[in-house]
Amino acid sequence: MADLDALRARWSRSLEGARGPGGGPDPVPYADNLLAHWREPQRHYHTLTHLTAVLDRVDVLEEYADDPDVVRLASWFHDAVYLPERSENEERSARLAERALPEAGVSAEKTAEVARLVRLTATHDPADDDRNGQVLCDADLAILAASPSAYAAYTAGVREEYRFVPSDAFREGRAAILRRLLALPHLFRTPYGAEHWEATARYNIGGELELLT
To answer: What does DSSP assign to residue 177?
Structure first.
């Protein structure tokens, strides 16, 4: 069960880190709006547990980011709009950030960077010099390197979110995604991710692919 007060505090620290202390309105209503998004009933994997995990991994990887607080804000927004049957979730999440952050006191430059990072999670393919993007994408994909039980819970949650898709079509689509991931030269771009997550993630993906096919 997610600790809502702890998440509100984490949001407030990140927002104030990005805009400066006292640089805008009370952070809490913005946190509560985002928490409401993350608690919608159609979510089974993309929940507050996922948000918390991504924030925890950004904390682990923050030394590799140019602006860790901006990456944390992007973590909050990256799946804020999530409807499994829609294909433009990242774009709609980025637009939510573009509306909310200036009102909350964040500069145009940092708002644009948050929105760019959110859109990047559609492909998880940051450039070699995109340090913020590498941290966010690694944090988001770190579930692929989870323990067997956590990985099984992740795949079950994804399947539940797509329960409206027939089994054969889901297996085909999921297998295609997994093959694309395995074909990437690197799943993780930060030194920490490459060292600690890459091998386990490839093992987990290969095992899931074998089960699907």
So the answer is: H
Query: Residue holding tokens 């390197």?
Result: 145
Tokens 């637009």 belong to 95
**Encoding tokens for residue 125?**
């393919």
Helix ranges restricted to H, 39-166: 48-61, 68-77, 89-103, 108-120, 131-141, 148-161
Contact 79, 139 (CB under 8 A): no
> Distance between CA atoms of 32 and 116, rounded to whole angstroms?
23
Is the Cα dihedral 87, 135, 125, 108 positive or negative?
positive
Please state whether the predicted TM-score (pTM) of the whole model is above 0.90.
yes
Residue 1 confidence class, pLDDT cut points 50, 70, 90: low
State the pLDDT at residue 87. 85
Looking up tokens 């010099």, which residue turns up?
129
Contact of 18 with 70, CB cutoff 8 Å: yes
